[in-house]
Amino acid sequence: MKVAIIGAGNVGAMVASRVVDSGLADVALIDIAPGLAKGKALDISDSRPITGSSSKIEGSEDLKDMRGAGIVVVTAGLARKPGMSRDDLIRKNSEIIKDVSLNIKKHASLAIVIIVTNPLDAMSYLTMKTAAFKPERVIGMAGVLDSARFINMVSSGSARMQSDRIFMMGSHGDTMVAINRSVDLDDKTFKEASEKARNRGAEIVGHLKTGSAYFAPSAAVFSMLRAILKDENRTVCCSAYLDGEYGEKDVYIGVPVTLGSSGVIKIIEIELTQQEKKAFKKSVRQIRDTIAKL
Ligand code: APR
Which fold has domain 2-140? Predict the structure, then answer.
């Protein structure tokens, strides 16, 4: 199986490295920046005698080299620069996503697509509409990452993912909703941990100054790739298209889903408390506002 990764920046290259090192699949790494994907692909390829992997990787500047991919991971986009408004960023990334989506439709029309580019939920919606793909084949990566951050806060890294019991729902943004059906936490600890998890991305950017997180984001994409490629039918939190689930229609938002070889096999509807329902609705409104700007 071939995985195409569009965007060979921090997240894209790290996903490529994880996929090749583990031998999960062959990789086509593609970026418009001249030489970037080619150089990184050669570098990743050179690790194979060390890791013992037989996966192949090719770097390219041409989107048509995604041809034959069963999964396309989209990390292509711009990071917000000083002086750039959130709306400017949405406009720029929408243009990139539209172009990439049309190319996916043309060159990899049967692929499952994983979207990483922000604003994630709206970009997943845009891809599904532009490529005219079935919603179960377009999935946004965020819930795995946000849930991992939340779990890491409450367990100091000792807990494994429990995507059906402790996780983050809602938008990949300020209004994400922490859900805990597992760990015995007092209210104060729960609130503090969820707040910290919500701000983790900004905290990391604050330290790095240039660029944003990519180790945990790439681990999250890798976990989704594995669930699909190995048909694991595993519960994973990601941005998925709602068609009546949770009382919402025609929107992408973070929810627990069953992920397998055909993409989203099922959206899992958990019972929400009144407070969680209110927070989830707020999150939906925020995403709809962004979608309206596309
Ligand atoms: N086609 C292919 N690649 C593109 C395109 C395009 N049309 N437009 C931009 N790119 C590439 C850039 O050249 C860059 O190498 O996308 C890459 C993005 O990489 P980084 O800036 O390093 O961003 P990264 O940290 O990898 O994050 C990827 O995820 O967090 C989100 O929206 C955020 O844009 C960010 C994305």
Answer: Rossmann fold (3.40.50)
